[in-house]
Design goal:
62% helix; 47 helices; 3-stranded antiparallel sheet; 6% strand; Beta Polymerase, domain 2; 1013 residues; single chain; alpha+beta
Length: 1013
């Protein structure tokens, strides 16, 4: 509440005769209320509450300093005639009390005169170090209605909230410095020294002591929060939980207040582990229950949330001792096999990685002990368990085969990343060979190609040298021996691999070949490294010889593969992409020359086999496409027979075959095939795909194909023909009416997200959309209303329509606003987050845009707040002078009615300087008691993202500096608003400085020096 007015006025004599006793009673009353409300704030430690009425000599001295000794309204000039002080133990208590809302609930606060005293460093070293939160308040109107309080009507009290240490300093500083005697020529330097020493006492002793006390209390409170759980038995409590909400709440408290301070974890880790695993399994069997609140039910904690908490606690006890490591391995295995949900298993694999990796802290304590236990435990698994847990074992053994130990240390201000190589002694060498043996055994038992791929990836983990630094010869030897072992094993199994897996494996082997310098041995290699390199080269030769005998593998690499390593690539590092393309082209030329009537059946069978491999990307069949094109030129008769041979496996390559034939001497076959397909409605998706990329097509053929696609209800073919209809070579008005518009309407009726068909988004050329009639534009835009989000390509189409039909495009967005409220789809975005091209067209129509957006705010005030209010900022990314003047005109002409609209629009420009000019105009045209002024202050305070722990302090200081420019405005309302807001900013600066300092100092004490994390 702003502004307080007394029913009568008094001077200093009146205060001495009657006022002082009245204010003394008032301060005692306020203190009594403060005592009651502070007792109701949880965990608040108050040392004492003081009260007093200002003494007459002190008041006289203050009035003389202010030049107000003859004032007849002393109570309006001096805010602390009645004063109270709440003295708390720590800064956290001060924050707890001031943020509790107790003051606002029980008093009327005069925020204009309320102040937060906290030093904000300015580099001078002489800033005032007095620290206190000073409220100026009066009793509430409701309390004033009671007879015992009525005599205090209009009285104000200053309430200071401080800590014990800062209170003691403030008392001494007040008596020695604040009431500094007037000295001239005597003792001035000594008193300056006293003032400097007082600052030093606060800065160098009391402030650090205050933070140390806060650390003591914080630690004690965390310990106290866990005592109740420890006394009741945390594991017993977990077992008794009946739903996931109870489990999550208890696990949260155990994580924060029990396990970090549990001193007997070594003796109890087995019980903790079994309890946590049982808790996860119980959570799996429990449905999620909603949580009842005074405001209705909210979603309860899920199985995933409870399980995640348990896993984090398991990680805290996984390295206690040797049995803890063994049992953690068993727990991971049990949890992995116990739930086949893929998301859950991926989470277990992430924990397994953290468990088995070469961690710096664990390695320093136990060397490769964890990895040795992982291998030993895996060696004991039965055959069925090996097969079922193959992905889990592959993850852990991959990490056990690592050669770099990594970890971090941290302090309150930095995180350091550390890495070093392992020493390849007997223990490490043994672990590596045993891990490889387990992986090979598991590979032989694997029952799926996916599992085999994971195991191959794990085998190749043994082939990696360190990424950083120069490894020792013993480590290089160990890695090369492991690489040779892995490659020799894989060479014996290439015949059983499907061709895509074999290609990927060969690529990994080629990577080892590169790492091995293509078999080159230099003088820098010692004898043991040279011997190991020779063994790797021999293993690679063995692998290549084995792959050479795999049927159709060479053809697969040329026609299908995109990670193929052709023979010249094994000779040295100079075989790059250009050489690879040339080699592939020459090989295809050889295939074309080899094709004949006699061997055509064999080639067709080969092509059918290659076409069945799913690579996930049609681009991987680039070689096969080249083959089709070459056949179209050189052996069109053979390609024609393949095309007309009715081979279902080759259907997806029909467009490629048509393209090849179209480039050769039998072009007529292409259109015979297409026309026949249109007539019989066969192969429509394939032939329409061809038509979508063909240049100079026949528009009549497009129309016939479109009619056939509609009759077959073939969405994919319709989508292909839409692409064809927007091609520049096919564009004419009849195509727009006969194919483009009805096609768009057909697909939009089938599916609101019609631009995504068969897993891919098709893109239309925007050119035809630039010349649509008004009716055509309406039809097209109607089909776009239900599309959930406007991506780049759709925006291109809207931009094309807007060239001639900007009004219709704006109306399109108007239709999206109410549509959003009609669909239960959280992904629907009526207005996009950003425009990339559309704004350039719409920005030509400022009046039209403002008129439309103003009408939206009136029609749909609720929906308007969901992004629609940013539409102006999307169209005009910069608040130009022209736009500023238009907004200023609204402020002048519409007054309070248009303020909410203007504020919403200005939200899109955050701290742009021109917003202040508009805000000034709004303030100048609003009544002083308008509630809209509070909304404006909130907007002016917005900071966005800041940097650094004192980022908000700097941001608020910049806003204060900018607000001070308002003081030069000739309008009294603007100046008055600015003064009030500057005081608000000063409070925010002090409060944020205080919060940031406390957070920084507590972090320094929690992380006093670099420690392992």
């Amino acid at each position: 509440m702003r502004g307080f007015f007394l029913e009568s006025y008094m001077n200093i004599k009146d205060y001495e005769l009657e006022g002082q006793s009245l204010y003394a009673d008032f301060s005692k009353t306020v203190a009594s209320i403060l005592g009651v409300i502070s007792a109701q704030v949880p965990r608040l430690h108050v040392q004492q509450i003081q009260s007093r009425a200002k003494k007459v000599p002190s008041l006289r001295l203050k009035l003389e300093k202010l030049g107000l000794i003859d004032s007849d309204c002393v109570e309006m000039r001096v805010k602390d005639l009645a004063g109270c002080r709440i003295v708390c133990y720590t800064d956290a208590d001060v924050t707890r009390f001031t943020s509790s809302g107790a003051m606002q609930a029980n008093f009327e606060i005069d925020w204009d005169r309320t102040k937060i005293h906290h030093p904000v460093p300015d580099g001078s070293g002489t800033e005032n170090l007095f620290q206190s939160i000073n409220y100026v308040l009066r009793l509430t109107d409701a309390r004033m209605q009671l007879p015992e309080y009525s005599r205090f009507a209009g009285l104000h009290c200053e309430v200071q909230v401080q800590t014990t240490l800062k209170h003691a300093w403030a008392e001494m500083e007040h008596d020695l410095i604040y009431k500094r005697p007037a000295l001239q020529g005597f003792g001035e330097k000594l008193l300056d020294g006293i003032e400097a020493r007082m600052r030093s006492i606060m800065r160098d002793h009391l402030m650090p002591a205050s933070h140390e006390f806060q650390k003591v209390v914080s630690d004690f409170e965390r310990m106290a929060a866990g005592i109740e759980i420890v006394e009741a038995g945390p594991m017993k409590l977990l077992g008794a939980c009946s739903n996931n909400n109870e489990r999550y709440d208890l696990l949260e408290r155990i994580e924060n207040h029990v396990l970090p301070y549990y001193e007997d974890v070594t003796a109890t880790h087995r019980d903790w582990r079994s309890t946590l695993v049982a808790c996860i399994e119980s959570a799996w069997a429990t449905e999620t229950n909603p949580i009842a609140t005074p405001f209705g039910e909210i979603a309860g904690y899920s199985t995933d949330a409870v399980s995640e908490k348990c896993l984090r606690l398991l990680q805290q006890i996984q390295f206690i001792d040797r049995p803890a490591v063994e049992e953690t391995f068993d727990a991971l295995l049990r949890l992995y096999l116990g739930n086949s949900n893929e998301k859950w298993r991926q989470r277990i694999l992430r924990m397994a990685h953290e468990f088995a990796k070469l961690d710096r802290r664990v390695w320093a304590a136990a060397g490769p002990g964890v990895q040795e236990l992982v291998v030993a435990r895996a060696e004991c698994l039965e055959t069925g368990v090996l097969t079922a847990s193959a992905p889990l074992l592959a993850t852990m053994l991959s990490d056990a085969l690592g050669v770099e130990v990594t970890g971090t240390t941290s302090s309150y201000e930095a995180v350091s990343i550390h890495s070093h190589h392992v020493q390849a002694g007997p223990a490490v060498t043994s672990i590596r060979s045993r891990a490889l043996a387990i992986l090979k055994k598991t590979y032989r038992l694997a029952d799926s190609d996916l599992t085999r791929k994971l195991l191959i990836d794990a085998l190749f983990a043994a082939t990696k040298l360190p990424y950083r630094g120069v490894p020792s010869d013993s480590l290089v030897e160990a890695v090369l021996e492991s690489a040779a072992d892995a490659i020799e094993f894989l060479a014996a199994h290439v015949n059983a691999m499907p061709l895509p897996l074999l290609e990927a494996t060969e690529d990994r082997v080629h990577g080892v070949h590169r790492q091995n310098r293509f078999g080159e041995v230099t003088q820098a290699d010692g004898p043991i490294v040279a011997k190991a390199r020779a063994r790797v080269s021999a293993a690679i030769d063995q692998f290549r010889q084995a792959t050479a005998g795999v049927a159709d593998f060479e053809e697969y690499c040329v026609l299908v593969g995109f990670r193929s390593n052709f023979p010249p690539a094994w000779d040295g590092p100079n075989f790059g992409p250009a050489e690879e393309t040339e080699y592939r082209r020459r090989a295809i030329d050889g295939y074309v020359a080899d094709l004949s009537e006699a061997n055509l059946p064999r080639w067709v069978n080969l092509l059918k086999r290659l076409a069945t491999f799913e690579t996930g990307d049609m681009a991987s069949f680039q070689g096969l496409r080249i083959l089709m094109e070459e056949l179209g030129n050189a052996r069109a008769d053979l390609l024609r027979r393949i095309l007309l041979g009715n081979h279902p496996e080759l259907e997806r390559f029909i467009p490629t075959m048509l393209h090849g034939l179209a480039a050769g001497p039998q072009r007529g076959v292409v259109y015979e095939f297409i026309d026949g397909s249109i007539t019989t409605s066969t192969y429509l998706p394939q032939v329409t795909w061809y038509l979508s990329v063909e240049t100079g097509g026949d528009t009549n053929r497009l129309k016939r194909a479109f009619d056939a696609a509609l009759q077959s209800d073939d969405e994919q073919s319709v989508a292909n023909l839409l692409v064809a209809s927007t091609s520049p070579s096919n564009g004419n008005s009849s195509i727009v009416e006969d194919v483009l518009l009805p096609g768009i309407e057909y697909l939009s009726r089938k599916d609101p997200q019609w631009r995504r068909i068969g897993g891919w988004t098709f893109h239309l050329d925007p050119a035809p959309f630039r010349d649509l009639t008004e009716e055509q534009a309406r039809r097209v835009l109607n089909a776009f209303v239900a599309v959930s989000s406007i991506d780049y390509h759709l925006e291109d189409l809207l931009s094309a329509v807007a060239v001639m039909r900007s009004r219709q495009v704006i109306e399109y967005f108007e239709r999206r606003i109410p549509y959003r409220a009609s669909v239960d789809d959280g992904r629907y975005e009526a207005i996009p987050y950003q425009f990339h091209t559309l704004h350039k067209e719409l920005a030509k129509h400022l009046g039209l845009v403002l008129e439309a957006v103003r009408s939206w705010s009136k029609k749909w005030p609720k929906e308007f707040s969901y992004r629609a209010d940013r539409f102006v900022a999307l169209v005009f990314p910069e608040l130009t002078d022209e736009l500023k003047e238009a907004l200023v005109a609204i402020a002048r002409n519409e007054g309070e009615e248009g303020v909410e609209f203007l504020i919403a629009i200005l939200d899109g420009y955050e701290a742009h300087p021109n917003t202040h000019e508009v805000y000034k105009e709004i303030v100048a045209n609003l009544p002083e008691d308008s509630l809209q002024l509070g909304s404006i202050e909130t907007r002016l305070d917005a900071t966005g993202v800041v940097r650094g722990e004192f980022g908000f302090v700097a941001a608020y200081q910049e806003k204060k500096d900018l607000m001070e420019s308002w003081l030069a405005d000739p309008r009294l309302r603007v100046v008055g608003f600015a003064k009030r807001h500057i005081r608000t900013l000063e409070r925010e600066i002090a409060a944020e400085q205080r919060r940031a300092e406390e957070s920084h100092e507590l972090r320094k004490r929690n992380f006093p020096k670099e420690s392992n994390e």
